[in-house]
Amino acid sequence: MITRFYNNLTPFLKENRALIIYGPRRVGKTTLLQNFLSMTPLKYKLDSGDNIRLQELLGSQDFPRILEYAEGYELIVLDEAQLIPNIGMGIKILVDQVPGLKIIATGSSSFDLANQVGEPLTGRKTTLTLYPVAQLELEAQYNRHELKQKLPEYLIFGSYPEVLTAKTKEEKIQILEELVNSYIFKDIFALQQLKGSKVLLDLLKLLAFQVGNEVSLNELATNLSIDVKTVGRYLDLLEKAFIIVHFTAFSRNLRSEVVSTSKYFFFDNGIRNAVISQFNPLDLRNDIGSLWENFLMMERMKKRAYKNIHGYSYFWRTYGQKEIDLIEERGGKIFPYEFKWSPKGKVLSPKEWISAYPLAENLLTVTSDNYLDFIVKA
């Protein structure tokens, strides 16, 4: 059993306030709930958004019926809450009308649940995101030497809980292919009435080959034979379903800085590799740079979310092809990072960067030697 960072939800539970837990499908939200509920002294009721009767009840805005549903309980837990129509109003009724009640709601897609709970629960909710297993979570199970030994596995197969606990390469591949073919589009189809996965899968394949590079929506639209607005809509849906995440360009001073493009990364390396059916070992691959950058961007995002490191993340590039992989703006300071798989050779900050941002922190090069300090160390 892998101990998750949010293993104990008690500190996040407040009376007359909802705890909303987002995260991709099969990332461990239900297991997290079950483990927590097995230890809590609270009298609780656990229900699923798949329950048609529950959908009708909590979506009805019928005060007496909703209050009767929660009567006698200290904690109401709603798994896959995004499937319940008007769930935000249903939770608001419980939060406002039942003194002392605590509520947990999980969702495997953020677009529907976030839209529903956003306005009704303003000032009445706490939000957490559960990611595929982070290296900082695995550090409790393995020492640094062991984590580095397992690094090629994480780069190729990612860190979904089922994948990490699978015994063989074949089993890991089977799980990832099942995730891609059966699960990752499920919420998009259910909530957006899309008819098929081919265009979405083709879009993900194009993104998989462009990890670490700037993405042109016009180019994607041409390759997919669809219009640019549709590409933008699909990218937004894929991001809200926790499949991809985008980073924008950092620009403050120079006319030569790229400002209008984005880079897209996959929430998990294993999903990225499954999309293009590429599970070859590292010494037989020509995309190690992309794998390394995707891995570090996501692990850094997990660390910042779990450790409450607040700020903004960007990439930086000029039209003259000078670039820095990651720029973090936090605490009034600017931190540049460059990602290199090989620890050999020193990377210097571009002169244009030094000239434009003389007060920025020194460039840190993150390699396969020192990466754990960057994504694990407090």
TrEMBL record:
<feature type="domain" description="AAA">
    <location>
        <begin position="16"/>
        <end position="137"/>
    </location>
</feature>
<dbReference type="Pfam" id="PF13173">
    <property type="entry name" value="AAA_14"/>
</dbReference>
<dbReference type="InterPro" id="IPR041682">
    <property type="entry name" value="AAA_14"/>
</dbReference>
<dbReference type="InterPro" id="IPR027417">
    <property type="entry name" value="P-loop_NTPase"/>
</dbReference>
<protein>
    <recommendedName>
        <fullName>AAA+ ATPase domain-containing protein</fullName>
    </recommendedName>
</protein>
<feature type="domain" description="DUF4143">
    <location>
        <begin position="186"/>
        <end position="342"/>
    </location>
</feature>
<dbReference type="Pfam" id="PF13635">
    <property type="entry name" value="DUF4143"/>
</dbReference>
<dbReference type="InterPro" id="IPR025420">
    <property type="entry name" value="DUF4143"/>
</dbReference>
